[in-house]
């Protein structure tokens, strides 16, 4: 069994989604975390979660690599998420975070970039995750992970997941010290920076994900990113650590199950 701890289900063509999940579940994927880009995405992921309870865990939020929401829209989304909690529905908060790629691209072009509204929006989602005591799925890499950790620690967050984590060992130590998790994608097969992380991060803090339909390179060049590839991530982590693949898969599965409450 495997879990795909970070999947953009609504990033696949509408006509492909059901078959994708069917193939994943038939092929040994126990569940997927379906993260949201925006309000429309939240609605789509909620519908899939209701169709596959216990197998599709929705995460509700507003992706940070796009303009932040205005106050009214942000308040409305937070209220919509609160209503899901009031109805007793299972869900996490996400995908939320900080716009590392948007910011660094702007800075590389010499354009000014004001991160303040993004950070303010993230803090609202962090506060909401604390209020509702839900896990939070974060897009916060390199130096942005440290900024996110400041907010998480201040709000007393218990369950934070740094998806497709990239960063230094000091940041990893801080994630681990807080009992938070991070996940790796199929690029663990060929990306030296990610392979080094896979060998170093405590297994108890690791999850496998695909971030599908995001395309990968190396052995995956030209292939559709599929939740089944989460099993490859676990197997590669085992290989890099010289451990039995079944043992590593079992640990990563247990991490994802307990973190997201599948
Ligand atoms: Zn994502």
- How confident overall, as mean pLDDT? 98
Give the number of domains: 1
Q: Provide the CATH top-level class.
A: Alpha Beta
- What count of helical segments does DSSP give? 10
Main beta-sheet annotation: 8 strands, parallel
**CATH topology type:** TIM Barrel
- Strand arrangement, largest sheet? 1-2-3-4-5-6-7-8
Topology as H/E string?
Answer: EHEHEHEHHEHEHEHEHH
Indicate the CATH architecture. Alpha-Beta Barrel
Radius of gyration: 17 Å
- Unreliable stretches (pLDDT < 50, length at least 5) are none
- Helical coverage, percent range: 40-55%
The ligands bound in this entry are: zinc ion
Query: Whole-Å distance between the termini?
Result: 13 Å
Strand content: 5-15%
- Assembly form of the protein: single chain
Set out the fold topology.
Elements: E1 2-7, H1 14-26, E2 29-35, H2 39-51, E3 56-60, H3 71-86, E4 92-97, H4 100-108, H5 116-132, E5 136-139, H6 143-154, E6 160-162, H7 169-177, E7 181-184, H8 192-200, E8 206-208, H9 229-241, H10 245-260
Parallel strand pairs: 1-2, 2-3, 3-4, 4-5, 5-6, 6-7, 7-8
The structure holds zinc ion.
């Amino acid at each position: 069994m495997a879990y795909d701890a970070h999947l953009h289900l609504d990033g696949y063509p509408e006509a492909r989604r059901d078959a994708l999940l069917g193939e994943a579940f038939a092929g040994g994927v126990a569940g997927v975390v379906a993260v949201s880009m925006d309000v429309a995405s939240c609605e789509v992921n909620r519908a899939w979660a209701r169709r596959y309870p216990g197998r599709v865990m929705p995460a509700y939020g507003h992706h940070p690599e796009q303009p932040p929401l205005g106050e009214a829209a942000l308040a409305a989304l937070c209220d919509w998420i609160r209503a899901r909690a009031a109805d007793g529905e299972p869900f996490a908060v996400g995908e939320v975070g900080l716009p590392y790629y948007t910011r660094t691209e702007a800075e590389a072009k010499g354009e000014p970039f004001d991160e303040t509204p993004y950070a303010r929006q993230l803090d609202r989602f962090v506060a909401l995750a604390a209020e509702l005591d839900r896990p939070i799925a974060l897009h916060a890499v390199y130096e942005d992970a440290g900024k996110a950790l400041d907010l998480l620690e201040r709000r007393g967050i218990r369950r934070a997941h740094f998806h497709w984590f990239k960063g230094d060992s000091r940041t990893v130590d801080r994630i681990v010290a807080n009992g938070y998790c991070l996940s790796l994608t199929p690029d663990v097969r060929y990306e030296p920076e990610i392979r080094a992380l896979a060998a170093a991060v405590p297994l108890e803090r690791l999850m496998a994900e695909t971030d599908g339909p995001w395309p990968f390179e190396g052995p995956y060049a030209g292939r559709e990113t599929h939740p089944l590839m989460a099993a490859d991530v676990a197997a590669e982590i085992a290989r890099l650590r010289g451990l039995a693949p079944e043992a590593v898969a079992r640990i990563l599965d247990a991490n994802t199950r307990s973190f997201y409450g599948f």
